[in-house]
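User: If only I could read backbone structure tokens as easily as an amino acid sequence. Underneath my words sits a plain record pairing an amino acid chain with its backbone structure tokens. This is the protein in question:
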Amino acid sequence: MASPGLKTAVMLSLFTLLAACGEKKAPQEYLPRVFVQEVKPAEYAAAVTLTGDVQARVETELSFRVGGKIIQRMVDVGDRVTAKQVLAKLDPKDLQTNVDSAQAQVVAEQARVKQTAAAFVRQQKLLPKGYTSQSEYDSAQAALRSSQSALTAAQAQLANAREQLSYTSLIADAPGVITARQAEVGQVVQATVPIFSLARDGERDAVFNVYESLLTEAPEDKTVVVSLLDNPAIKTTGTVREVTPAVSAQTGTVQVKVTLHDLPDGMQLGSVVSATAKTPGKSAVVLPWSALTKNISEPAVWRVDGEGKAQLHTVTVGRYLTGKVIISDGLNAGDKVIIAGGQLLHPGVKVEIAENTYKDLEVGNQP
């Protein structure tokens, strides 16, 4: 029979075992696991590639100075012309009739002047002898002066009619290349309606249409490298000459003209060219797309505060790039931004920061 001491020891062991089995471990608090990136601002200069074409510095719209029917066209698009070269002609019949009428009027006025001059000479001879009165003399003199004025007016009308007749020939005012044609033989045109576009010989510009947002600040270096779009090996340099002050209502862009220093072989009038320009460097932060979210309607990121809690923070996006986004304002150096795992977060939730396997992205001079 077991001793009382042994029974007591066994009972104590059973109680200890039962107590151990009855203990429950307190459940650990679940923390969302996130990846973070420490903010490291740096200078960022975005490179923008633009596409444009080569145009003449001076391009003139040529038109007739009188209306009429086109009966002849001597040039076509792409033709080179010289100064004073006839490009097209109008039917001159109506204007020739005006010339003939003005010529006849001049002849009539000349005859009238001759007649009134003879009458005045007679009055001059008779007046000293008393064979005529002073009033008749004055009348003859006035008639002569009137006829002379009428002759002058008729001669001016004739000169004007001849000048109008000369306008039936459309003449190039400078050497260059025809770049457009807006009328054809047989068409009746009004005065000043463009018939040809003439790109004058001389300096050439590369013209680009640029969105206004890219021109918020003028570039520090106005020298631009311009290359042929289909053959980048053909290139030249140019200088920004003109930026239009108004935005086009049709395209929403601003026109930028770059004067080309020279035109290499293969790059000619009308060639499609490209140019790359860098915007002035600014302090900014680059983050992967996955870091960007929104606070109602504004862009935002999740930032981990000093207590390890996620806080939604509004930021300003300077530029969207492939796979990443440039933050121009709203973050400071040393801030910890969640770049992965922020889909189910809410403000104030405590997070677990995982070992960041993402490659650190820093802003450099390349986009």
Notes: The radius of gyration is 45 Å. The first strand starts at residue 33 and ends at 38. The chain has three helices and 24 strands. Confidence is low (pLDDT under 50) at residues 357-367.
